[in-house]
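Student:
Attend to each token:
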Amino acid sequence: MKEAVVSRGPKVQIIDSEIPKPGPNQVVTKVVVSGCNPKDWKRADMMPDDAAPVNQGDDIAGIVHAVGENVSEFKPGDRVAAFHEMMKPGGSWAEYALSWAHTTFYLPKNTSFEGQSPALSVCVPALQV
């Protein structure tokens, strides 16, 4: 698969990577839309010069590709939106992304992928306040 990774600058590279494999309690989603917000590019400028490039994308909207052990609430083909765990492999700036089942949500058929991905960045932090 193709994946965008970022290093200090920020500098972006498109690389070839393996499709992530879900671990227990994880979901792999075929990305249709990935959000981008200020922390994504600001975080890259805080990286050390010698830090390995990383896929900073954390906002996912797409179709479930695979689920890990212990995941019963999602199955391949489900429309979902999800959060990727920040600064971990399998980010959303790729063809496939990894999320935890507890940060994955069903996406209603009448909600567009484009409308959902950025909403996660705004709505969930607001709920935590």
Q: What stands out?
A: The longest helix spans residues 113-128. DSSP finds two helices and seven strands in the chain. The chain has one domain: 2-128. Residues 2-128 form a domain with the Quinone Oxidoreductase; Chain A, domain 1 fold (CATH 3.90.180.10).
